[in-house]
Automatic annotation (TrEMBL):
Species lineage: Bacteria, Pseudomonadati, Pseudomonadota, Gammaproteobacteria, Enterobacterales
UniProt-listed PANTHER family: 6-PHOSPHO-BETA-GLUCOSIDASE ASCB-RELATED, GLYCOSYL HYDROLASE
Pfam families in the record: Glyco_hydro_1
Active site positions: E374 (nucleophile)
Family matches, as NCBIfam families: PRK09593.1, PRK09852.1
Keyword tags: Glycosidase, Hydrolase, Plasmid
Official protein name in the record: Glycoside hydrolase, family 1
GO cellular component: cytosol
């Protein structure tokens, strides 16, 4: 690959989310959010899936998001580390309940606005472009308890009011916006994805697709508002990406993989093309789903995004015989274990070519610029006798994926940038662990929340600095 594979001005950087890094969960007037209710331990999963209702905190549980890595107080130090690596872009999210503690207030919390103004100003001071997600797995708990979260159409008003507040308050500081992080995760992890909990015997699919419709309407309206507030704003959708491979060339397996891909891509089909795909009519009929729509919704959905962003950790695999027993949700979305790819310690497949395949499929389907806003390896890091972390495994993962992204660019795909996930160690979304680390910067904190929170540079820090300085040409 030549030095010119990555275009001039390519946005290299890293990504965090408010709920996994900030902490300060009730500071500065912030309200409780869904993610604050997710404990560490065996009950985390049923709560995340909406099977176990958790509307109040318990004294006997540990909640990793409450302090996280204390980014709320340490962001200046952290942004300086990113600047040292040469970051051109930094992705984070705004905690909705920091701006609207309950979610249905008319006026925002001034302390929340001040915090994010300071954060984005600090990025700009270092020449770093903020890339901001409006909703990364957090909904104010009051909206869950009072309105049933995204089941209710009222959420469209609350969200668009919040979005307009952000576009106005941070105008001139933020240009790149994402509406919902990994919007398709609503189907796979409904409480953490969208604040949904279910009553026994309820048609879960009905609830999920109704909530989906509300999010899609809210996303399209937010896109419209962003463009009205400032035509220079660039708004993206965000997919938990990774194509499904058919287990074999048996036609039934190929069909199963196509259906699984459609389930996830449905969201992006609407956000990037502006209408429900034709096949949804049959799907809804067969699942007994009736999505309530209002007059004018079709026109609203035609406000499509400017670019398509996505996360990529692994490809997936499906067969006609796939079931609860032979599949696993190691990577949140259920998949068969592909024997042709290796796996991380947490069972997530490692498949760089799958990234090129996914990017080509997405560009063929949407013809909008792509932005790879999450990619990385969750691994255990052990400091050596001198305290150094020689994370060659992470360097190798990132190198292979950057090479695959370069190939996709050489295939002719316009790509805006790349933000590696968890550029600083943070709380894992799936398990709540700190020991599942993604960072180029190490944070001294363990799964139970003990540690000094001190930051230190890993070997990958120096490697990534070189990658950025050479615009992706030097990956050694
Ligand atoms: C994505 C999320 O699903 O994957 C992040 O957008 C998450 O919030 C990341 O942290 C990695 O998953 P995990 O469970 O290893 O943290």
């Amino acid at each position: 690959m030549s030095a010119s594979t990555f275009p001039a001005g390519f946005l290299w950087g890293g990504a965090l989310a408010a709920n996994q890094s900030e902490g300060g969960y009730l500071e500065g007037g912030k309200g409780l959010a869904t993610v604050d209710m997710l404990p560490l331990g065996p009950e985390r999963l049923p709560v995340k899936l909406g099977q176990q209702k958790r509307f109040t905190l318990r004294d006997d549980e540990f909640y990793p998001s409450h302090q996280a890595i204390d980014f709320y107080h340490r962001y200046k130090e952290d942004i300086a580390l990113m600047a040292e690596m040469g970051f051109r872009v930094f992705r984070t999210s705004i905690a909705w309940s920091r701006l609207f503690p309950q979610g249905d207030e008319l006026s925002p919390n001034a302390q929340g606005i001040a915090f994010y103004r300071d954060l984005f100003t600090e990025c700009r001071r270092h020449g770093i472009e903020p890339l901001v997600t409006l909703c990364h797995f957090d909904v104010p708990m009051h909206l869950v308890i009072e309105y049933g979260s995204w089941r209710s159409r009222k959420m469209v008003d609350f969200f668009t009011h919040y979005a307009r507040t952000c576009f106005t308050a941070f105008d001139g500081l933020v240009k790149y916006w994402l509406t919902f992080n990994e919007i398709n995760i609503l189907l796979h992890s409904p409480f953490s994805g969208a604040g949904l909990v279910f009553a026994e015997g309820e048609n879960v699919e009905q609830v999920k697709y109704q909530a989906t419709h509300h999010e899609l309407i809210a996303s399209a309206l937010a896109t419209k508002i962003a463009h009205e507030v400032n035509p220079a704003n660039q708004v993206g959708c965000m997919l938990a990406g990774g194509n499904f491979y058919p287990w074999s060339c048996k036609p039934e397996d190929v069909w199963a993989a196509l259906e699984k891909d459609r389930e996830n891509l449905f969201f992006i089909d609407v956000q990037a093309r502006g209408a429900y795909p034709a096949w949804t009519a049959r799907l809804f009929r067969e699942k007994g789903i009736q999505v309530a729509m209002e007059e004018g919704d079709d026109a609203i959905l035609r406000h499509t995004v400017d670019f398509v962003s996505f996360s990529y950790y692994a490809s997936r695999c499906a067969s006609a015989e796939m079931n609860e027993q032979n599949s696993s949700a190691a990577n949140v979305v259920k998949s068969l274990a592909n024997p042709h790819v290796s796996r991380s310690e947490w069972g997530w497949g490692i498949d760089p070519l799958g990234l090129r395949i996914t990017m080509n499929m997405m560009y063929d389907r949407y013809q909008k610029p792509l932005f790879l806003v999450e990619n990385g390896l969750g691994a255990r890091d052990e400091p050596d006798a001198n305290g150094a972390i020689n994370d060659d495994y992470r360097i190798s993962y990132l190198r292979e994926h950057i090479l695959a992204m370069g190939e996709a660019i050489a295939d002719g795909i316009p790509v805006i940038g790349y933000t590696t996930w968890g550029c600083i160690d943070l709380v894992a979304a799936s398990t709540g662990e700190m020991s599942k680390r993604y960072g180029l910067v190490y944070v001294d904190r363990d799964d139970q929340g003990k540690g000094s929170l001190a930051r230190s540079r890993k070997k990958s820090f120096w490697w990534y600095k070189k990658v950025i300085a050479s615009n992706g040409a030097d990956l050694d």
